[in-house]
Design a protein that fits this description.
mainly beta, Jelly Rolls, Immunoglobulin-like, 2 domains, seven-stranded antiparallel β-sheet, six-stranded antiparallel β-sheet, globular
């Protein structure tokens, strides 16, 4: 990866258990430093698929997850007056996998998306085919099944090794020339891989605290908490926080549920990580575009004395000046995960 930055995440990543001795194999990955291997088409230039860093922001978030670029559909500012195009991956051979295979990619967006027409006025779709898109193996429409606009979040698709050599295709279509002054659709950090053996799903417990402007902070995991470093980098991500506020993650090996700051403390004797800034919209705006994230590396696990199959519990905390002290904090629920080989 080019580098890791704070980002939102809607979908909790899962690991499928099989033989504990088998490590993950990455079949294809890109964080889009360029468009090498991808075929980008558009019937509406200058509104096109491109790999670049324009526009620079999507509702306060960077237009890339890993610097310096993402795959995106727009004209560098928006997709006015209208747009339709595809971004097609190079061939990816699934048949070499020994076990379960999945696609994970990160997405951000700012489009017109009224709930109509089956997929919204601005259609965002993923197609998968093994015969040049003469027929389709998989279609997803990213309207109601997508994460919050302006916050990077991940999507996961289960693939079948019996499909053989596939291609992925991202499709965008405005359908008309109205309401097209938005930033567009952004894709980054895409990976097709076998699923690391010996990992269990992460899960939520405990209760979040509603913040002073009516938002509920969320916490999720992405990647695989492998002690040996196989598989996708493991991240703990929290979003829906107030913008431009200091926060940190608490974690430990014992869960807890006790009153704290007007909410619930979900970790017993927590270890505090270094403070982070939530980012998001610039002040004086006050909204819920703030996000935090921490990459929990194998080195951190080893230094903390964690071992395979050990349970870990995490919760994010942030300042909230809308409450009077000592209640001037925001809290996510807790997330539980287990160290895997």
């Amino acid at each position: 990866m080019k580098q890791f930055l704070r980002s939102g995440f809607l979908l909790t990543a899962a690991c499928v258990a099989s033989s504990l001795s088998r490590a993950q194999t990455i079949l294809y990955s890109t964080d889009f430093p360029d468009d090498q291997g991808w075929t980008l088409t558009s019937s509406t230039p200058p509104v096109v698929w491109a790999v670049d860093d324009t526009p620079a922001k999507v509702s306060g978030a960077n237009s890339w997850l890993s610097a310096p670029f993402s795959l995106n559909f727009n004209n560098g500012v928006n997709y006015h007056p209208l747009g339709m195009g595809t971004a097609t991956s190079p061939p990816i051979d699934l048949s070499v996998a020994n076990g379960s295979v999945r696609l994970v990619f990160w997405c951000n967006w700012l489009v017109e998306s009224p709930n109509c027409c089956g997929c919204g006025w601005d259609e965002r779709k993923l197609f998968i085919s093994n015969n040049g898109f003469q027929t389709l193996l998989h279609t997803t429409c990213y309207l109601n099944d997508c994460g919050p606009s302006g916050q990077w979040h991940a999507h996961q698709v289960t693939l079948d090794k019996a499909w053989g050599t596939i291609q992925l295709q991202f499709y965008f279509n405005t359908l008309d020339s109205s309401w097209n002054g938005y930033a567009g659709w952004f894709i980054d950090d895409l990976e097709v891989s076998e699923v690391t053996a010996g990992c269990a799903d992460s899960s939520h417990y405990c209760y979040p605290k509603l913040n002073s402007i009516g938002c509920t902070p969320q916490i999720f995991t992405a990647g695989q908490p492998s002690l040996s470093g196989t598989g996708t980098a493991f991240r703990i991500v929290a979003n829906n926080f107030m913008n431009q506020k200091i926060g940190l993650m608490n974690w430990g090996t014992t869960p807890w549920q006790a009153g704290f700051g007007g909410g619930t403390l979900c970790v017993s004797q927590p270890i505090h990580t270094a403070p982070q800034d939530s980012g998001g919209s610039s002040l004086p705006a006050a909204d819920c575009t703030g996000t935090y994230a921490l990459q929990f590396t194998p080195a951190m696990m080893t230094q903390a004395g964690l071992v395979v199959s050990q349970d870990v519990y995490c919760q994010y905390w942030s300042r909230d000046p809308g409450f009077t002290p000592p209640f001037n904090i925001s809290l996510t629920a807790g997330v539980h995960w287990q160290v895997c080989p």
